[in-house]
Amino acid sequence: MILTLLFVCAQSVSAQQTTVAVAANMKDAFAEIDAAFRATGKTQIRVVYGSSGNFAAQILNGAPFNLFISADERYPIELFQQGKTTDEGMVYAIGKLALIAKTSSGITLADNKAEIARAIVRANKVAIAKPELAPYGRAAVEYLKSEGLWDLAKNKLIYADNIGIATMYVVTGGADIGFTALSLAKSPEVAKETNFLLVNNKLYEPIKQRMVLIKGAPQEAIRLYQFMQSAQAKLILQKYGYTTP
After folding, report:
1. pLDDT of 12 over the 80 cut
2. Exposed e or buried b for every residue in 147-161, given b needs 16+ CB within 10 A?
3. Which of 1, 22, 120, 174 is most buried, most CB within 10 Å of its CB?
4. pLDDT recorded at residue 206
5. Tell me, what DSSP letter sits at residue 84?
6. According to the model, what pLDDT value does residue 7 have?
7. 8 Å CB contact between 243 and 181
8. Mean pLDDT throughout 17-36?
9. Inter-residue contact 45 to 218 (CB < 8 Å)
10. Cβ atoms 25, 95 nearer than 8 A
11. Distance, CA of 164 to CA of 128 (rounded, Å)
């Protein structure tokens, strides 16, 4: 009876599905990383994309995520300080902020303040991720204020819960221009409908993206965490415009 019970428990543990919370800016890059990881062996991974702020709040409230791949450092470190993670985790990538314009809007983007100001004036709306939830939204606000464009843009801003949704506002024409992650700006789906400009990264705080394992994470989550540090994963990240440590 005891042996049977132990066998059933072992089956249950081995069948535990790994659930990964991934920042929306990573969607295309992580899809490729996930495919490469799955190719290394049998895996049972569930991936959820969203804003880093929402994920952090959910994990604090007991959401069953095993690995948190954030768009910044603040949220993972806060989770560590709250005793939710195995350690402080590590920075796996440094992201870059881009401005995109809907091609059909006729707005072209050029790398100087006057032209960016002109684009904002011409735009019907400017899409941005909520800065209180999304690090790329926070970086966009920092950029606009540093460049002296905040007053010009603030009444045209439309806010999205995460950077993926903000990007789709521009792709679908809900906004003529918007701020996104370079990784998303370079994705085929977005590039087909928009043109992009890499904005001056000296005008916003570096977007250091950190990942952390949640306490009690199964072996599969640990393997994925380690794979994210591999040369193969770093090459994929670099392909999508990230800098890797």
Report:
1. no
2. bebeebbeebbebbb
3. 22
4. 95
5. -
6. 33
7. no
8. 95
9. no
10. yes
11. 10
